Amino acid sequence: MSMETISGLIRDIKDFPKQGIVFKDITPVLKSPEAFAEVIEIMSTRYLKAKPDYVVAVESRGFIFGSALAYRLGCGIVPVRKKGKLPYQTIEASYDLEYGTATMEIHSDALQKGDKVLLIDDLLATGGTAGAAIRLVEKLGARIIGVEFLVELAFLNGRKNIPKHPVNSIIVVD
Amino acid sequence: MSMETISGLIRDIKDFPKQGIVFKDITPVLKSPEAFAEVIEIMSTRYLKAKPDYVVAVESRGFIFGSALAYRLGCGIVPVRKKGKLPYQTIEASYDLEYGTATMEIHSDALQKGDKVLLIDDLLATGGTAGAAIRLVEKLGARIIGVEFLVELAFLNGRKNIPKHPVNSIIVVD
Predict the structure, then answer these.
(1) What pLDDT shows up at residue B99?
(2) Domain boundaries, chain A
(3) What pTM was computed for the model?
(4) What are phi and psi of B147, to 5 degrees?
(5) Does B62 contact A at CB distance below 8 Å?
(6) Is A148 helix (H, G, I), strand (E, B) or coil?
(7) In a 3-state reduction of DSSP, which class is residue B173?
(8) Which of A77, A163, A174, B22 is most buried, by the most CB atoms less than 10 A from its CB?
(9) Contact call for A71 and B16, based on CB within 8 A
(10) ipTM of model
């Protein structure tokens, strides 16, 4: 399946979740067995040799790619969630939103020093969430070997928040 | 990996998310490559012949099993989410909580008449969420061929809300 076909499955939803936002609805990509398998294949191919110890996936659409990717690569999956969702002891990292801040958490025993981590989320927008997730992983002493997104909104320049790590996105929206 | 080993990875968190609840923390199962792969293997084996068209996964821990399962079975994945999270046109189903109600949604074009569906969530408690998810799938004319859970809290008798469908859970807590 070509990248154009996968890209064509993503639909724009105007004014979601609020007025003025054009939301990228990826559910048609998930629904297509061929598109979903192809995305996992592309993402995993880069890590077959330098295999990560863990896939760290960001709530909640990141779980959908992270889980299949972890299964494909034969590694474990570690969730990063919004504050208050993880049941055990956590550490947290915050980032600025347009109004206010958001806080993400990871279990404090989720990773050990030296673990190799592949970080995954569905969308790279401003990079705030990914930046916070990276800080959480590194606070625990683990090492990011790559950051993967399905869609990158390049006009928001989110890569400025992920300056030190290899970033890949399958579909780039200019 | 034996069922006892997988079961032993699940940890009890007292008073989460609120006083009096003992929460089953499954993150150590996800973190173990062997346990995670074994769970996906057990769940998928039942559906290798009667292959579903779609795995319908319930937000958000259901995504983690549903995605790897869909990838393993070569089918698409369709999310059921809490009200307000899905961007496109939806249909909804509500169920009673201890206080008030909760509402789940599915995209109205997510399934077609006759589609074979495997439904998945991480935990069977009272069965309210699963019951609502089944109603959503059947409202769209699709057919449930099985319902899979990692953990079943048997003392809550959640199967009473799923009377017509084959239900499997890997770990049963009495």
Answers:
(1) 84
(2) 49-168
(3) 0.97
(4) -130, 125
(5) no
(6) strand
(7) strand
(8) A77
(9) no
(10) 0.96
